[in-house]
Amino acid sequence: MKRKKVSIMITAAALSISVLYGCGNGSTDTKPESTSGGSVQQETAGESKEADAEAEQAFTVTFYDTDGTTVLSTEEVKSGELATEYVPEKENQMFMGWFATPSLAHAFDFTKPITEDVGVFAGFMENVEDTRTFAIVGSGTSPLLSVSSWGKTINDEHYMTKSEGENVYSITVDLCEGDEFQFAIDSSWNNQRGGGYMTTTSLDGKEYFVVSGGLSDSNKKSNIKCAVTGNYTLTLTTFPGADVYDTENSYYSEETKENYNSNPYDKIEWTYNGDMVAEQADLDVAYYIKGAIITNWEDKYDEEYKFTEADGVHTLTIALEEGDEFLLTTLVTVGEESSVGNEYVRYSNISDEASLSLVDGTESQNIVAKQAGTYTFTYRPDTKELTVEFAE
């Protein structure tokens, strides 16, 4: 019996030591965890305070006059928030918007959050009445443009109507697919306003116009090409107080200055009214060859350069020199009125291998005769396909 009690006491003592040892380990492990948890909470609290401080930080937005120094107003804006756009008033001046630089080269973006002190610059210009008269000038198959001949003919119906008391001109006109035009004040295309002035060329994802035929890096003098036949109201808004002149152009002179006139604010807008109101004119389209050697790049509407037509197929047989660069142009006749067309037949209209072996193409898609001899050209307007035959 005594042996059993001693054995039990030894076992109990061992268990007590084991339990105490285990509790000691648990206590040691828990303390660092508690300390570590406190550090995370402190860091989180610190980050939160920094975020709150940053959110409470405000920056100054200074609104300047056009001179870049006169302060019109200031606004305190919290970091990450937006500046408030407003319209300032100035006697006999038109407000053109807020800009990001004193040179007024770039519009200020009011959708960009403010994160530093910033200056905003007002664009003003003198409120000048436009006394000019604009007309639609171009070429095409619609009733109005088929007699325009790129502005050589300007009748009363070609002129735009100016709104009373505003520099806003408008014209409602039928246009056919392929028509090309611009606006100008006369047949010399002075003060021309082209594709670069359009605010948009599409509606609901569909292209109604194409800006084509640029004369330089700028597309302001590019033609506006109609992509959808229909009736349109076209509106030209002008700001003559901001007109500028390209005096650096080598052809610029006081006599020709209006040919080099442009404006950074003028704009062309349009409304599609639906189908054409009038019936399309009954047109006769004739094709002619025009080239560097054959016509000295002049439009010559003589019989020797004209394609003959039979059952909708146009054909011309003519002698060309080696290396002559050329293309096909059109003459559109409505009744007794004829005008230069806007359709051109080029190297890109040739696709069959036999024809391609006889001619080359330039970067501008003009056609080049590979060798001297007699060429026969056949053009089918319905397929836009040009074929070539050759005889020495």
Features:
disordered N terminus; 4-stranded mixed beta sheet; 2 helices; 392 residues
Question: What can be said about this structure in brief?
Answer:
This protein is an alpha+beta fold and 392 residues long. It contains two helices and 25 strands.
Query: Residue share in helices?
Result: 10-25%
- What's the gyration radius in Å? 38 Å
Task: State the separation between the terminal residues, measured CA to CA.
Answer: 138 Å
Order of helical and strand elements: HEEEEEEEEEEEEEEEEEEEEEHEEEE
Detailed description of the structure:
- It is built from 2 helices and 25 strands.
- The protein has 392 residues and is an alpha+beta fold.
- The strands form 7 sheets. Strands 17, 20, 21, 22 and 23 form a 5-stranded antiparallel β-sheet that branches. Strands 2-1-4-3 form a 4-stranded mixed β-sheet.
- Strand 18 (308-310) and strand 19 form a beta hairpin.
- The longest helix has 55 residues, at 2-56.
- Residues 1-36 have low confidence and may be disordered.
Write the layout of secondary structure elements.
Elements: H1 2-56, E1 58-64, E2 71-78, E3 93-99, E4 118-126, E5 135-139, E6 161-162, E7 168-175, E8 180-184, E9 202-203, E10 206-207, E11 209-212, E12 223-226, E13 230-237, E14 244-245, E15 261-262, E16 267-274, E17 283-291, E18 308-310, E19 313-320, E20 325-334, E21 337-340, H2 353-356, E22 359-361, E23 367-369, E24 373-380, E25 385-391
Parallel strand pairs: 1-4
Antiparallel strand pairs: 1-2, 3-4, 5-8, 6-7, 7-13, 8-12, 9-10, 11-12, 13-16, 14-15, 17-20, 18-19, 19-24, 20-21, 20-23, 22-23, 24-25
